[in-house]
Design a protein that fits this description.
Elements: H1 9-21, E1 25-26, E2 36-38, H2 46-64, E3 80-83, E4 113-118, E5 124-129, E6 132-133, E7 140-141, H3 150-163, H4 175-189, H5 201-233, H6 240-263
Parallel strand pairs: 2-3
Antiparallel strand pairs: 1-5, 3-4, 4-5, 6-7
């Protein structure tokens, strides 16, 4: 029997989806599940509709344990997620030199989107909005209407705990501080993962955790250097690390002088 990974992309993506959905409002609860992600509503065409049908058929086949032909999926059944800032309020001056549309809008905790589907008249209608509260058509923008799921938060903690046991970081006395910083970082950027660009949130989270650990290590090394400088200025013994570095530098210098003498 194949051993299941302690964290996998499928489970992480599922929890990210549930977490983001808590910040959204849909015309009907089942519209939370999308079949295709597009960057522009104009990208909806015969090809993307067929792709969405295939995705929907594959998902329904897995849920029902029966093979469903994508050609039997109605056009009006598929849901498209369109990445857009159209419903996000403008915030002029948020950035001095805005380079993207996002820089001119209110800062949100994950890339905003809307869900669309075809109605019986073959018209695209909006059936869901992120960062929204109330009715889809008459509601209002909201940043605090949702939260990350408990399971996703547990995944963040588990990932940080696992990383903290790696050989290159577990020996540090401030290991707990590094873990705490990494968990805080994931809590801040955990939902910023963009499903339209990647299907590998594990790599995204691992990179964020690694950067957090390295940031604390560099900060501690900088503080240690300052402490050692102060100790040496007061004719006191610096840390063992500074002493070892000094001895190593002296050994390298002696070796270089010895090699120079041999060459001469």
């Amino acid at each position: 029997m194949k051993k299941k990974n302690y964290l996998n992309n499928r489970d992480i993506l599922s929890e990210i989806h549930k977490s983001k959905s808590s910040y959204c409002r849909f015309s009907s609860p089942e519209y939370h599940q999308y079949d295709s992600i597009l960057l522009d509503i104009d990208k909806i065409n015969i090809r993307t509709i067929a792709d969405a049908k295939r995705v929907r058929a594959k998902r329904l086949s897995a849920e029902s344990a029966t093979v469903i032909d994508y050609r039997k999926i109605a056009k009006t059944d598929v849901v498209f997620r369109i990445m857009t800032f159209d419903h996000i309020p403008a915030e002029p001056g948020r950035k001095k030199n805005p380079k993207t549309v996002a820089d001119t809008k209110v800062k949100v905790n994950f890339p905003p989107f809307q869900h669309f589907k075809f109605n019986e008249q073959d018209e695209l209608v909006c059936i869901g909005k992120s960062h929204w509260q109330g009715d889809v058509d008459t509601g209002h923008f909201s940043l605090k209407s949702g939260t990350a799921t408990d399971k996703l938060a547990t995944m963040w903690i588990k990932l940080c705990d696992r990383y903290a046991t790696k050989g290159n970081v577990r020996g540090y006395t401030y290991n707990d501080e590094m873990k705490g910083q990494a968990i805080l970082q994931l809590a801040q950027i955990g939902l910023q993962f963009d499903e339209s660009k990647s299907a590998n949130p594990f790599a995204y989270y691992t990179a964020a955790v690694t950067n957090s650990f390295v940031r604390i290590i560099n900060l501690e090394k900088k503080n240690q250097t300052i402490r050692d400088d102060i100790l040496e200025m007061n004719n006191m013994a610096p840390s063992y690390t500074r002493q070892a570095e000094g001895e190593w530098a002296i050994a390298l210098k002696r070796e270089a002088e010895y090699q120079e003498q041999l060459n001469n």
